[in-house]
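Hello Y.,

Per our agreement to keep a running log of every chain we model this quarter, I'm adding this entry. I've kept the format consistent with earlier entries: sequence first, then predicted structure.
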Amino acid sequence: DAPLEFHQFVGYGVLGAFLGNRIWLPYGDLLLCPNLWTLLIAPSSRFRKSTALGIGARILNRAREGIIYSEQGTSEAWIEEMEREPAGCFVSYEFTTVAGLLTRDYMAGVKGLLAELYDSPAFYQRKTVKKHFKVERPAISWLAATTMEWFLQHIKESDLAGGFLPRFLYCVGR
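Predicted structure for the entry above:
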């Protein structure tokens, strides 16, 4: 009972996440993967944002175990997850929860990292004192939802100027 547009946008996101880094389009010296960041924005309850996301998440889980990344954790935990599954998807039933998490001190730089990985570079490396991470051909998708009020309360000018929010496709329910 969610709007058809929500199901369509979630469907595009699911398809992009499932295809991941297995297909691409050449763009200069880059290989662009079909990973999409999709944000459904509508008032609570009657637009059934979570219903549309839930259907997409269940399809992804059935298609490939481990494709959905954990929403909680540290930047190192996320990178370790991406190292195991470089073509995965975040599913955020409330986008502003994740946006808030990304502002914490221990998550410094993660928005920039995610924006960098959105472009599906050939690889990403990170060295810590204890471990060396290497993510081969990341193709990160994101399915998320929120209300317009919460979105406007939590966005920052730097998220727009820094390239984090412009990477999302917005589907606004009316």
